[in-house]
Amino acid sequence: MSFKSLKIGKYIIKKPIVQGGMGVGVSWDKLAGTVSHEGGLGVISAVGTGYYENKVHSKKLVADRPLDALNFYSAEGFGAIIKNARKICGDKPLAANILYAINDYGRVVKDACEAGIDIIITGAGLPTNMPEFTEGYPDVALVPIVSSAKALKIICKRWKQRYNRVPDAVVLEGPKSGGHQGFTYEQCAMEENQLENLVRPVVEEAALWGNIPVIAAGGVWDKSDIEQMLSLGASGVQMGTRFIGTHECDAHINFKNVLINAKKEDIQLMASPVGYPAQGVRTHLSELVEKREGPAIKCISNCVSPCNRGEEAKAVGFCIADRLSDAYEGNLETGLFFSGTNGYKLKEIISVKELLHKLMQGE
């Protein structure tokens, strides 16, 4: 099976593979820039940009962490990441992943537009007002992430009424993805919520709004998985965890090794201050949190609105901003290492070029 290119708005992605946005610092300039350069769609994570280049873009630090959303989601850091990714990929399409649940969502979307991003992908909530933040940037393609046909219908209806537009593409994420899920714990295990059973209904809904391209995500691992998703009607796939096993991935080598050494049973769903279950690798941090002996929770960065300034973090036992940034810095004691359910299959680190070749050719 030869793969067709993927069209998102005015942009053509030669290889229909979108690299998932992974933060803090897992998919920044090196990974995203290289994926776009090699013909896929590189996606920069907007999370924790105040940590970029050893925090030089964060105007104020407390306990060596960016203070508040203004510094955690640093406009200067984000701009520098995009600029450096552009040095790698040139004018090829480049995307940013901006979570809807973050504080300062609208400002961060505008920061991305001003820095010259082509495509914005948004999940972690239903982004019903996403288009209002990209006014004045008609070429920026908008891609919400959904977990059901119902969610897509709600977004399309609202966008059509308010902004007279529909999404340029949609990412459909099943419960095998890394990080936050669009399901409850119970829903993650239900047969009807598995990605292969969600694709057709979402493709049917997308067809009613002008054949919006559907990008299937969550557990997609190899060429046969891609072929399965395309045969169900998807126009492309999104893959995050698989790209952690590349030389160009911006994650610390310790992060990559956590996945390479993980066993299948180590990858589990866990409670998160964001209010959704999150999927990651069970590590030393998990044991500390269960015993209520985890690192102190101080809410320095004020990263996501559902956390309610650290209240939810205290309820679940860890601060997500601090623990993800510890993983970025390679701290094995207190880092939180997100992974999709197939992360244990990572056994080696290869180049992005080689990975894309394997995914396209099946070798």
Can you describe this structure?
This protein has 363 residues and is an alpha/beta fold. The chain has helices at residues 29-37, 52-55, 68-72, 75-89, 105-114, 149-163, 185-189, 195-208, 223-231, 253-260, 284-290, 311-316, 320-328, 352-361; strands at residues 6-8, 11-13, 17-19, 42-45, 61-62, 65-66, 94-97, 119-122, 141-146, 170-173, 179-180, 214-217, 236-239, 267-270, 278-281. The strands form four sheets. It has an eight-stranded parallel beta sheet with strand order 3-13-12-10-9-8-7-4. Strands 11-15-14 form a three-stranded antiparallel beta sheet, with no helix packed on it. Helix 4 packs parallel to helix 5 (105-114) and helix 6 runs parallel beside helix 8 (195-208). The longest helix has 15 residues, at 75-89. The radius of gyration is 19 Å and the shape is globular. The model has no long low-confidence stretch (mean pLDDT 91).
How many beta strands in the DSSP annotation? 15
Query: What spatial form do the alpha-carbon principal axes imply?
Result: globular
Share in β-strands: 5-15%
CATH level-two architecture of the largest domain: Alpha-Beta Barrel
